[in-house]
Amino acid sequence: MSDDDNDRRLGKLDELLAIEEIKNLRLAYSAYFDSQDLDGLASIFAEDAVCEFSQEYGGDWVGRETIRANYAAVAEQVGAPYSAIHAVTNPWIELIGENTAKGRWYLIEYLTRQGVMTSGGGHANPLFYLGIYQDEYKKVDGRWLISRVKLEFLWPERTLPG
Questions:
Q1: Distance of alpha carbon 152 from alpha carbon 53, whole angstroms
Q2: Can you give the pLDDT at residue 96?
Q3: pTM of the model
């Protein structure tokens, strides 16, 4: 095997490792959010991160501390840890540069306790939301972090255009 072939293989291996690190961010997001580990949740966001939500959910949350505070308010509404759980599927991660990437995930969110919450549609179905996360990531001091999250809902109310 030539040096060029070996370099290409090592480059591809680095790409795959970066993609796996990024996938773990979204999985950690779900675990931290569902367990209400707000410090853990905040730790996976860049200092200047943005969570882009509709006005119904407070509009854009800018900066790690604002993001933590707003998730704390959401946790109070949710109630006990694991009253809702996030299942994220179909990851599609693209490396844009050496230190930047974007990703797309499907969200299936379930309620685990009846009577605690209902969806905006007022249903008692344990299926709470279906949505799509559009994420951006950046590498800071050798560690991948979430730099932007946009969540668009598909069900029960649709916020995704089209």
A1: 8
A2: 96
A3: 0.88
